[in-house]
Known about the structure:
The structure is a single chain. By secondary structure, this protein is α/β, with parallel strands linked by helices. It has one domain (3-181): UDP N-Acetylglucosamine Acyltransferase, domain 1 (3 Solenoid), CATH 2.160.10.10. The protein contains four helices and 20 strands. It has helices at 3-9, 19-37, 43-50, 116-120, and strands at 14-15, 53-54, 59-60, 64-66, 72-74, 79-80, 84-87, 92-94, 99-100, 105-107, 109-110, 123-126, 129-131, 136-137, 142-143, 148-149, 154-155, 160-161, 169-173, 176-181. The strands form four sheets. The chain has a seven-stranded mixed β-sheet, with no helix packed on it. Strands 2-5-8-13-16 form a five-stranded parallel β-sheet, with no helix packed on it. It has a five-stranded parallel β-sheet with strand order 4-7-10-15-18. A hairpin with a 2-residue loop joins β19 and β20. α2 (19-37) packs antiparallel against α3 (43-50). It is globular. GO terms for molecular function: galactoside O-acetyltransferase activity.
Amino acid sequence: MGEHKERMLRGxxxxxxxxxxxxxxxxxxxxxxxxxxxxxxxxxxxxxKLLGRLGAGSWIMPRFQCDxxxxxxxxxxxxxNYDAILMDCAPIRIGDDVSIGPRAQLLTALHPMEDxxxxxxxxxxxxxxxxxxxxxxGGGVIxxxxxxxxxDTVVGAGSVVTRDLPSRVFAAGNPCRVIREL
Length: 182
């Protein structure tokens, strides 16, 4: 394993244009394209090649996009609706019994804000996303790097989740905030 992939996996600054990472993303894109073109009854084997873990009874609707795939873990009986984008430069862990609405985005990548030269040279970091059990995201939810969503939480459609959400709440908005307990 090369230096930049090791750095990425440790959550340190790395260059996303590193040849090994580019190759890994190409592999993931090929598998995503294969998945998107498959008949429904042939998708699961492709997902098992692509993802780090796919729990029993879980399924994903096409079009599905990710950066690497191997950093994504999906628990049992979970569902990702159409047009999901999971930028897995850091681990993305989705619990059991999770329902994610169409056009959701789980985004782990971070780029230097203050150091313009590092950004120009394609250095970045990433922070993991963790989604608890029995969570429901409405359509178009965006989850930002480093966020954890607690068990049994519901996030309203179109919300931009920039901070952790506790268990058993309904949250919505941009930025997403807790509306009430459930």
